[in-house]
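G., the chain you wanted modeled:
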Amino acid sequence: MRTLLIIIFALAGVMARAQTYTGKVTAVKDGDTIEMLVNGKPLRIRLYGVDSPEKGQPFGEKARQYTSRLCFGKVVKARKESHDQYGRTVAEVFLPDGSSLNMQLVQAGYAWQYTFYSKSEEMTAAQAAAKAARKGLWLDAHPVAPWEWRKQHRKAASR
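Predicted structure as tokens:
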């Protein structure tokens, strides 16, 4: 009986994680956060496994513009991975052509692979290729990862 309960809970977790949404992108908040209209209700999506430069950080606005060019006003699919501490759905987003928005941001140099969450070897290779080609944020001689930038700005604000 206990084994059966473990299997049921494990399957429930997999099924919840595999939830998908289809909707029109109505807002691009920044390079890695969009809003979709799903069944008439807004759903804020934080892109899984990537981290784009923050607003006010070099390449932050360019990352937002790039994300907007790829998805704003389009019907996309989002495959839920989890929720974050702000209540956003964390998901991989697929564009109308079936390609991953998350991967396209890394390939174009407008996002880092967020290795704390993503262990994708394909994304690691895409980031290395963008860096070698000096695409997007990799044009900067000393790019600062967004998680480091946020940490620096929290310290400065607390002083």
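The CA atoms of residues 97 and 119 lie 24 Å apart.

Shout if anything looks off.
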